[in-house]
Write a structure and sequence with these properties.
The chain is α+β, with helices and mostly antiparallel strands. Helix content is about 35%, strand content about 15%. A hairpin with a 5-residue loop joins strand 4 (about 120) and strand 5 (about 130).
């Protein structure tokens, strides 16, 4: 039973070298997810509910969330939500809990989320330090999908909402008929943010374990998942290096909110 490979990096060049090595082992794009804490698990927001835990409870919750979102969101968008998939991606964009988990095809975007999302604490010097190590998950979506869907002899790559193989993950009244393991898919690029962030997704089925636990329990190929750790003492210098290379808030969030975040930081108001 393989464990998730873990690597520590101490600088931006070390991080980029590790990414180059990972990318050289495969012919297609690999994906990344940056986390401000290395303790965060790879579990979508719907499955983090504080009380509802079983697949039946979560399927009912998903249906009620989608119904409420459709009912209440109509005055706030200019186009109809065409189907369940369109609704799911739109909900994810605005932070409503779903079975989707965000990734990016850009390793620098993932690094930005990890470093800028790290929790700060007051330091004796009057400046600030970081409470926990940050992490970037590295994910091979093609190798993952072929293993997750091996029971249907799947030999494709990343899925799209119209694909036959994704039908086992579409919203249904009950999760009982869904496939168990999460799979990787492309979503609708329905906002400037998702385009700028090169956003991609995994979607969960009836299984409620985080991806890193699925990887171990279901004997996925070793190259499917890796965790890059940034020690908390090195978050501050790596943040400066990344920002100096132009991966700033207004690049990652190409709207007024992103510009405001950047201006606040530049003028000494940490966000």
């Amino acid at each position: 039973m393989a464990s998730v490979r873990k690597e520590k990096v101490r600088s931006l060049p070390e991080y980029l070298e590790l990414i180059e090595q990972a990318q050289a082992r495969v012919s297609q794009s690999i994906w990344y997810r940056g986390c401000g804490s290395g303790a965060y698990t790879l579990l979508p927001s719907l499955y983090r509910h504080g009380i509802l835990r079983t697949p039946d409870e979560l399927s009912d919750l998903e249906r009620r969330l989608m119904t409420r979102f459709r009912q209440r969101s109509m005055p706030y968008h200019s186009r109809p939500l065409s189907d369940d998939w369109d609704t799911l991606f739109f909900m994810q964009h605005y932070g409503v809990p779903t079975r989707l988990l965000d990734w990016t095809e850009n390793p620098l975007i993932a690094l930005h989320f990890a470093l800028m999302g790290a929790q700060r604490i007051a330091a004796p010097s009057g400046r600030y330090a970081f409470a926990k190590e940050a992490a970037i998950w590295v994910f091979d979506p093609v190798a993952w999908n072929r293993h997750a869907l091996s029971h249907v002899s799947f030999d494709g790559d990343v899925l799209s909402p119209g694909d036959e193989a994704i039908k086992g993950y579409g919203p249904t009244p009950k999760f009982a008929g869904m496939h168990n393991q999460p799979v990787a898919l492309y979503g609708a690029h329905n906002s400037a943010r998702i385009v700028a962030q090169q956003g991609v997704f995994t979607i969960f089925g009836r299984g409620i374990k985080p991806i890193e636990q699925v990887f171990v329990d279901d004997d996925f190929p070793a190259q499917c998942l890796m965790k890059i750790i940034i020690p908390k003492s090195l978050i501050s210098p790596m943040r400066r290096s990344l920002l100096n290379h132009g991966i700033t808030e207004s690049v990652v969030f190409p709207d007024l909110e992103g510009l405001a975040r950047e201006i606040k930081r530049v003028f000494g108001f940490e966000v």
